Amino acid sequence: MFDPLVSSKSHCLRYSSLSGYFLQNDPHTDPNEFDYTEANFGLVERTYPSDDEKDSQEKMQTQWQRFEREVRRLNEDSGSNDDMEGEQDRKRDGAQHKMLFFARHGEGWHNVAEKKYGTAEWDRYWSKLDGDGTLTWADAELTDLGKLQAGRAGTFWRRVKTEGKMKGVDGRFVSPLKRAVETGERVFGGKEQQEVRAVVKELLREANGVHTCDRRSTKTFLHDRFPEVAFEEGFRENDELWNPDVREVNTELDERMKRLLDDIWKNEEGDWISFTSHSGAIASILRVVGHRVWPLLTGEMMPVLVKGEWMERREMDSRVS
Question: I want to staple 257 with a disulfide (CB 3.0 to 4.6 A). Which of 147, 262, 284, 312 is the partner?
């Protein structure tokens, strides 16, 4: 589980999304008209400083292969901060770039219920119940449509890996809510994928509190239901975070997602990471890394290249103030 002392006394991490690599971060791209499955995930067709002249002329490598090499170049060119406190800090680059793939869960029964009653009544009354006698949405399951959406995303993921020769992820993390865990397995799971085992992370859950759809099941239930996934160290048996009376606001959610990224940057050696989560949580991460607003429909995915840079705390504080 996340170490709250991940930032040293004198240094902390600051994040930024890098533009020029994906269409989703281009202000001229309309999210309402954009289909990532028709645009190679949004990867911009361009040259990179890391391009090999022979490969470029003979087109021996795909855009994804050349982009992978570019990410390696960015990390190799990042300097180390040798003056950081402690061995763990010193071994980290001054800046580390990670390729993040976000997947929003497929449609859940809570999505159906909100459409049925309308957002105002859902927030006022129905979201606080476990169901209405017909539908059940506490820790909501995927609907049949949601399973189909997740399957379509998985089909596209496999196609880009096969045809585009995109590398698989080095780390795979999922929210502890059932709809996200199942979506993650339908998108990235399966022996044919040869992806790493998913890890359930508490911090990756949706905005927390009040809504029963965001109250997670016990660890025992999740383990029995999804034996193929692992749990982060320290994951508790019961949901000790969900509050029936108070719901997280955006500032609190953003702080939680910053802690999640700190955990990943500090402890995850790989540079290609997938997060399977929720609309609110993903939107929060986009705010933390300075990405433009990009709403994801249920079952959709998006890539973001993120730079995490160690900075002196006093410099970080001066930028915030």
Answer: 284
